[in-house]
């Protein structure tokens, strides 16, 4: 009985684990020790060897002219730009005035910058799309750096007849949904045209003609509107600089 108990104890849950073959060195190698080339230590050594043999190369400084050209191309990708607009964009990015001038001169030579063509396209687009008159268009061209001579030439393609026709179209469009007394409608429509740059004489005539064709009440009000007197008053205002 004692023998069987001893045997059972030796083989039971409290029995000592069997001895591992191959010694303690083999046990360490199974856990990925330094003796195994593919273990963590071996990997660290390999990485260290690679990093030690390859030094990082410092980034080459960007050429300023190349950077300036990239800035200009990004600006021109959105819409045509004037020379002044591109010069402003380059200055904001820290490009020197000398480099900016060289790059912009080259863009002038190849036709990528053309302020005269820009001004003509701007006048046509903004007049047809937004109904802007010459006064408002001149202000927009000035804000974009177009010189006075170039702007005047472009605005010369928009004559007084075309301006008056556009003013009348704008009034007719607004008058379809306008509400209120003829006097209130008159003031709102004249103000709308004034904000778009139309002279007082052109604005008043356009609204007066439109009201005269609307209904009897509006036509009666229009009879008392003196477009010439208002135009003369505006001329005095501009001349005196008030």
TrEMBL record:
It comes from Plantactinospora alkalitolerans. Keywords: Cytoplasm. This is Regulatory protein RecX. Modulates RecA activity. Residues 1-66 are annotated as: Disordered. Belongs to the RecX family. It holds the Pfam family RecX_HTH1. The gene is recX. Residues 114-155 form the RecX second three-helical domain. Residues 22-41 have a biased composition (Gly residues).
């Amino acid at each position: 009985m004692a023998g069987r108990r001893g045997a059972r104890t030796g083989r039971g849950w409290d029995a000592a684990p069997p001895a591992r073959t191959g010694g303690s060195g083999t046990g360490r190698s199974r856990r990925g020790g330094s003796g195994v080339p593919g273990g963590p230590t071996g990997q660290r050594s390999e990485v260290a060897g690679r990093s030690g043999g390859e030094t990082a190369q410092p980034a080459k400084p960007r050429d300023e002219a190349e950077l300036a050209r990239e800035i200009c191309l990004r600006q021109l990708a959105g819409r045509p730009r004037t020379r002044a607009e591109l010069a402003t964009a380059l200055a904001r990015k820290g490009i020197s005035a000398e480099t900016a001038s060289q790059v912009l001169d080259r863009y002038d030579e190849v036709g990528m910058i053309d302020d005269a063509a820009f001004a003509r396209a701007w006048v046509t687009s903004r007049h047809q799309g937004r109904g802007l008159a010459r006064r408002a268009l001149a202000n927009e061209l000035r804000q974009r750096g177009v010189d006075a001579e170039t702007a005047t030439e472009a605005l010369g393609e928009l004559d007084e007849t075309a301006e008056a026709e556009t003013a009348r179209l704008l009034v007719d469009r607004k008058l379809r949904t306008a509400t209120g007394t003829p006097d209130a409608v008159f003031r709102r429509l004249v103000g709308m045209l004034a904000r778009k740059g139309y002279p007082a004489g052109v604005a008043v005539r356009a609204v007066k003609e439109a009201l005269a064709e609307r209904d009897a009440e509006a036509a009666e009000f229009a009879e008392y509107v003196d477009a010439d007197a208002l135009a003369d008053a505006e001329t005095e205002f501009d001349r005196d600089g008030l």
